[in-house]
Every structure is written in C-alpha cells, then in structure tokens.
Amino acid sequence: MRADNASAQAAFAKAADYLERQPLVSNHRPLSWITQHVCQIVEERAPKWWWILTLVFGGMAALTPAMLTYLVSTGVGVWGLNVPVCWAWDITNFVFWIGIGHAGTLISAILFLTRQKWRTSINRSAEAMTIFAVICAGIFPAFHVGRVWMAWFLAPIPNANAIWQNFRSPLLWDVFAVSTYFTVSLIFWYLGLIPDLASLRDRATTRLRQMVYGLLALGWRGSNRHWTHYEKAYLILAGISTPLVLSVHSVVSFDFATSIVPGWHTTIFPPYFVAGAIFGGFAMVLTLLIPFREIYKLHDLVTDKHIDNMCKIILLTGSLVGYAYSMEFFIAWYSGNPFEIYAFTNRAFGPYWWAYWAMITCNVAAPQLFWFKYCRQNPWVVLAIVMFPNTGMWFERFVIIVTSIHRDFLPSSWGYFSPTWVDITLFIGTIGLFVFLFLLFVRFLPIINMFEVKGITPQADPHDPIHHAEEKQPSLASSKEVHA
Amino acid sequence: MSRSSSSLFGLGAEFSSANALLGAAEKIHAKGFRKWDVYSPFPIHGMDHAMGFKRSRVSLFSLIGGCIGLATAFSLIYYTSALNYPLITQGKPYFALEPSFPIFFELTILITAFGTILGLLLLTLLPRLHHPVFNWDRFQRATDDGFFLVLEAQDPQFHSDSSRKLLEGIGGTHITEIFQDPEESPHPVRAEVST
Predict the structure, then answer these.
(1) How far apart are CA B177 and CA B195, in angstroms?
(2) Domain that holds residue A361
(3) CA gap A118, A26 in Å, rounded
(4) Residue A249 near residue A171 (C-beta atoms within 8 A)
(5) One domain for residues B142 and B88
(6) What total of structural domains would you count in chain B?
(7) Do B142 and A459 touch (CB under 8 A)?
(8) A with B: how many residue pairs have Cβ under 8 Å apart?
(9) Closest chain A CA to residue B41
C-alpha cells in the first residue's frame, strides 16, 4: 500500500513537472547575471567574426548607394521596368522589407497588450529589425518616383507650382503610413532602450562610453516617480502602435486593392497582407536571433520555449496566408468576371508559374512542418525551415505585382518582365545594408531588453506566491528533508 | 556633524529585494513622508500604490497630441484640397471623409506619439544628467540589481538621526548620507575611469 502511494506520488510529481509552465528565464538566473551577460556583449572587444561579417556585409551594403548613383546618373531605364510592367522588383522589395518590419511591432506592441511575457527577451532585437527593414524599404519607392530630387513633392510643402498633393491617392497615404510607422517605431524602440542605456552607462569603464551612453540614457536613475510615467507612456505607445502596425500594411495593400487591375482589386488584401507581413517578419526574427543566441549563449534568455512560440505563430500566419491564396482563387471564379478568372489562372499556370509555385511551396507547404514538435524544438531545423518563408514572402509580392500587370486587358499590351543586373544588385545591396545595420546594433546596444526581462523573473514579482513562501519560511525545505 | 545641512540631499538605504523595497515604501508612505523616492532596475508591481501615486498624467498629453494630430490632418486636407487649390481628380468630391481617413489616422497616431514622449519628458523632468543620488557609490547598482530608498532632507519630517533609525527599522542596509555636491560624498563618486 505504501509502495503504491509512493509510486502514485512519483507519477503525480512527474505529471506536475510536465504541466508546469517553463520559466521564461531558465536556470533561475539572478538579476546581476542578466545585466552582466547582456552588457558583456557590448563591452567586450569586438570578436574577429564580427569584424569579418561587418566588412563583408558593409561591402554588400555599399552596393546600395553605388546602384542608386548609377540609377540616378543614367536614368530609371537601368531597371528592367517597361510598359506594361512598371512596378516590379522595386515595389516587390519595398513591400517585402516593410512586411518584415511588422513582426517587430507585433512583438513589441500587440504581445505587450496581450500580456505575452515571453516577448521581453526578443522585443529589442525584433524592434531593431523593424527599423532597419523600414530603412531598406523606404529606398525603393523614393527612387521609383523617377526623378528622386523631386521626391519632396510628396510632402505637403507649399511649392512654386502652387499645387498640392492628391490626398485621394493611396500612394500618398502610403507616404504618411510608412513615415509615421518609422517614426513611431523609432520612438518606441528608443523609449525601451533608455533604462538599459543607463545600465551600460553605470557599467562604463571608459570616459567615452560613459559620455555617449550617459547622454543617450537622459540621466535615467530608475526612480519610481519616473517608472510610473514611463510605464504609462510605454503602454500608450503600445496601444497606438497596435492599430498602426495593422494600418501600415493595410495601406500598402491599398496601393493595389484600390486600383481596378484584376488580381489587385480584391477586398481580402488588407488582412491578407498583414498576416503575410507577420509571417515573414517572424521568419526574419528567427533567422537573426538563432545565430546570435548560439554565438552569445543566450539560451537562458531566449529559451526553446520562445522559439517554439514563434514557430507556432509562423504556422498560424502561414496557414492564414494559404487560406488567402485559395480564397483569391475562389472569389475570382465566383465573380464570374473573365478578366479576374484569367488573372488568377495565368498567375498559377502562365509564364510566371514557377514564381507562383515557389511561393506556395515556401509559404504554405514548408511551415506545415511546424506541426511537429521536433521541428520546433531544434533551432537548426527551425533556421532551415524559416528560410522558406523568407524566400516565399519575396515571391509572394513578386507574384502579386508582376503577374497581375504583365498581361494587360489587350493582348497587344502583353509583356514579360526580367530584372536587370541593377535590379538584382540593388536588392542584394539592401540585404547587405539590413544585416550590416543589425551587426552594428548587436555591437553597440543591448540586444536583450534587460529591464523587462528582470521584471518577469520570479524574484522581481513581490506577489509571486512561491517566492513569497520561500522567503518567509526558509526552514520549509530543510524541514522536508528531516521528514524524509 | 560638520557639514552644513543645506548641502545634504538625503539619506539613502539599500534593500535586499523588490519585495523588501515594496514593504519599506508602504511604511514610509504611511509615515506621511512627501519628498522621497525608491529606485529599482525595473518597475515593481504595486509600488505606485504603495507610494500613494495617482494615475500618471502622461495619457493627458497623449490625448492632446491625438486631438492636435486629427485637427492637423483635417485642416491640411480640407485646406489644400477644397479651399486653396480645388482640383477635380476623376470627378471625385474635393473633400470626402473616406479617402481622408488613412491620413487622419496616421497623423493622429504620429502626434499622439510625440505628445506621449513630450509628456513623459515633462513629467519626469528628463533629460537631467546630474542628480545627487549619483553621488552615492552604491547607487550604480540601481540599474543592475540594487533596490534603494532615498528620504530627501527637504522633507519636513526629515531628521538626520530619527530618519536613520526609521530606515534601519524597516530593514534598510548601507544607510548613507547623500550630498548635493559630489566633493562632499564620503565615498568615491564612481569607480575609477580610465581615458
């Protein structure tokens, strides 16, 4: 009887272990460990691999100004654009980059409002990624206007022509949406950085570091009279960023959806674009985070649970995107409009069939692997799988943009777009710029949001029942031992 | 005490945990102190209540910002499209709510964000790079893992000796006098920095 009881108890204990929530910071790390471990990345001498990668990606990034200079000095004709395909790689790249940014804001704002505490160890790097992605995105439409020196006409500034912007145009909405998105993301990111910059200031060992981090930290001293306003400001920024992030990709989709082009003129675009943006963005977060987690041994802060959660979001949004793809076909058929039906048949089986099926494979098929726990738990498998959404989301934008316009209503105005070397090199240049900026970020700013991670540890919570009991009754553990 | 009391900023005490600091804050608040503060590496849940704070007013600045943003967007679009240079585009009305909505929304968000940040800076009186608490050598840990409570000498209830006893009584350790002038600080200001 006694043995039965003991085995039952052991089984219960095992079940309890299994059901217990995994802690968000593993191994019960103390607060100072978190500060030390994260600040050390910035404080140690730049490792050799960092120099090599920064030089390589910095060189790649230099292709961006080089190609833009060539473009401006020669003319937009150096891109492969021509009637009927006047939007191609440039707008594809724009939507691709802006979409990547969305995961950052989703993590920092929406997961904050929904009290998903696991966001704390990934939000800093995801927000940085957002800002760098939006920088890359902004380059394309700015230069796609053709005469880039007139891009300031987009801003409502009185000018010599005495003419104003057309506020009924979705392209102008885009200007407002993207610039607001960039500004608010930057403010939100910087606000989150202030307490951590103060940590770096207080640990600084050189005068230069103390001055730079000291100025950036604004004299933050962790006062609760500040925290009370700080938390409110953070909450409000999260609150306004949530509809903002949903609006940005909706407005981007309006560029297409408000036109009459078959294949673009669909009401499903805004939610479909937002789901796709989150999908692609999380894939990029994982692409950047997994290598740095390995290099800097951040396993206790970015745990397997974090990666698992992000994989599940990718699975969900990937399936949503798959649903949107099929629904587009259904609506095209259901509309009975021959041009609509043609646009979609042509998309899947026309001259760009390869791009369409690459998109389906990467965005719909590949993420289904995340149904398997093994695929979500092994970081290298995850890294391999997320390369598919990274590629697939680029193809998605290419498919939507190019396949819809390459065959106009009249067969006399049909065409086939091929990129030129300038198109390709410029895109490679922005990839270089993106990674280059991220490498600089890793080196000079704390990549983990230290104060928020500290705030979710059990020792930070004065109401934590377990911690409370331990503190009040330190003899509890020893008394158990005596009984045993 | 040899130093003039006017240069004394206050009396600082260190606490072992967020929980201990919260308990101490409750007691100090109950004693009726007004000029005092706690310092921690992260916001402590329940501390605002313990210190008797009301709701933060940052949201008021956000609201004002939002209203300014919406008003700006409306006047910008209405003035430019319907008043200053009415231009017929595709037979559409000069001004209508539907196409204006995205810009109404974006500008409202943008100026709300500006208002929030401005409100935060005004209410916290930041940036302020100098503060007497920085003269306390242990205070560096406030951004790492230290929990501090500082009673300011300006408070009418502050008395050097009784306040020290009070802080000791509620579990404070390393109780230190903090001076306005870094020169007067009994400890080195910072760890030696090399240039």
Answers:
(1) 29
(2) 30-147+170-457
(3) 12
(4) no
(5) no
(6) 2
(7) no
(8) 217
(9) A222
Establish if A13 belongs to a structural domain.
no
- Whole-complex ipTM: 0.91
* pTM for the predicted model, two decimal places: 0.90
Which residues in chain A are closer than 8 Å to B110, comparing Cβ atoms? 180, 183-184
B77 and B164 inside one domain:
no
List pLDDT tens digits, range A193-244.
999 999 999 999 999 999 999 999 999 999 999 999 999 999 999 999 999 9
**What domain range includes position B48?**
5-53+129-184
Q: Which two tokens stand for residue A169?
A: 């145009």
pLDDT in tens, A388-401: 999 999 999 999 99
Those residues whose C-beta lies under 8 Å from the C-beta of residue A145, and which sit 6 or more positions away, are A151, A154
A164:B85 CB<8 A: yes
Residues of A in contact with B80 (CB under 8 A): 156, 164-165, 167
Contact B40 A227 (CB under 8 A): yes
Q: Do B117 and A233 touch (CB under 8 A)?
A: yes
**Domain end point (choices B124, B143, B172):** B124
Interface probe for B, chosen from A32, A167, A244, A253 (most Cβ of B below 10 Å), is A167
Contacts of A198 in chain B (CB under 8 A): 143
Identify the helix (H) or strand (E) that includes residue B177: strand B173-179
Give the residue ranges of DSSP H helices in A223-378: 224-257, 269-295, 304-335, 338-349, 353-360, 373-377
Of how many residues is chain A composed?
484
Q: How far is CA A463 from CA A476, B18, B30, B45, in A?
A: 19, 10, 20, 8
**Which of A165, A168, A171 has the most B C-beta neighbours within 10 Å, making it the best mutation to test the interface with B?**
A168
Distance, in Å, from the CA atom of A310 to the CA atom of A406, rounded to the nearest integer, reads: 36
